[in-house]
Amino acid sequence: MSSLWPGRAVLTVSLFLLSSVALPLMAEPLPPPQGDVLLRVVGDIEHPNVGEELHLDRAMLKSLPQGVIETSTPWTEGVGRFEGPLLRALLEAAGTRSDHVRIRALNEYESEVPVADFHAYDVILALERDGEPIAVRDLGPMFVLYPFDEHPELLNETIRHRSVWHVGSVHVP
Question: How many CA atoms lie within 13 A of 92 on its CB side?
Answer without folding.
Answer: 13
